[in-house]
Amino acid sequence: MNQSHEFRREVLKWLCLVAFLGATTMGVLDFRRGQPSISVLEIGFGIWGLMLYLFLDRAKNLVPWSLTLLLPFSLLIVYANAKIESTQTTFVWVQTIPVFSYLMLGRRWGLLFSIIFVTLGIVFYLPRLSPNPADFITELLDLGLASLVIVGFAHIYDRSRDEAFSLLVDQAEEDALTGIKNRRGFEITLKDVARTAKRQQLAISVAVIDLDHFKRINDQYGHAIGDKALCHAVDFIRARTRSSDVLGRLGGEEFAICMLGCTAEQCIKQLDQLRQAFAETPLQTDDLIIAMSFSAGVAQLGVDGDDLFSLFKIADRRLYRAKDSGRNRVVGKETGKGD
């Protein structure tokens, strides 16, 4: 479950507590002011806020639960503005609707919800405006423009927050050198792919890949050339695999690739063709021609392991079998292919 989803959960829980404390307090005050009808609604809304708070940790889809809080809250505000005996400051609560809507529903639904209920709030507040036509227009413009500014700022804030969050996620899950997934990003994506494979009843195979004798390249030519060698390997593999295949750097010269819809045998065949082509395509840089090769271990989910942890463990073990067997080969359950 992504962090943006959890952020909205925490916001919703906080708003539930605010609803409980604020609405029940206002309900008691309005009851003492002789407004029992709105008092009952406020206290009922506050109790619902508390009940929702206690339930939210178990909720998966937050949008419908957000609506069960936001909809009665907005209707209550509109109703309060429609009652002549309410104070004139009641309208300030209309201005909170866009903020809560964007935080709880996101940009698209938040905008729609804000437009509907802010408009209703203004319409029901019209009888409170000055009967003088000139003053009426001025006051209406004040309400409308102030509301528009708040909706606009809420929209801009939510968009900026999403963009900043996406950037942070990319930085946290992307390998800075090669531009592919890092270990964390690969494992997160692999879980999503595994769920897709289970839902669609597709095979899924994972290969752990290690560049052969990479330390020699670093020691002989320096880390700058070593970095180019890593990028060369990534570019080569990425250009010759499917867009649906997920490539990640686990660390150092070790990589992993996830192939959806491929059995272990199919994965071995594809990787072995890739291995042979890679061995015939040296890195050419700075007047240097550096031969490279890789070894790989392959495992299939549901055949070699029932969970991702065991799948990685088995694929990694087979990688080391490939290296112990002379490198430049792909090893599956029983078969090792190589030169």
TrEMBL record:
Sequence ranges assigned to domain GGDEF in this UniProt record: 202-335
Domain of life: Bacteria
Record keywords, A-Z: Membrane, Transmembrane, Transmembrane helix
CDD domains noted in UniProt: GGDEF
EC assignment: 2.7.7.65
Entry-linked InterPro entries: Diguanylate_Cyclase, GGDEF_dom, MASE6, Nucleotide_cyclase, Rev_trsase/Diguanyl_cyclase
Keyword Ribonucleoprotein: no
Enzyme class, spelled out: transferase
Recorded GO MF terms: diguanylate cyclase activity
Membrane spanning residue stretches: 12-31, 38-56, 62-82, 109-128, 140-157
Any GO BP annotation: negative regulation of bacterial-type flagellum-dependent cell motility
Cofactor(s) demanded: Mg(2+)
GO CC field: plasma membrane
NCBIfam families from the UniProt entry: GGDEF
Full protein name: diguanylate cyclase
Lineage: Bacteria, Pseudomonadati, Pseudomonadota, Gammaproteobacteria, Cellvibrionales
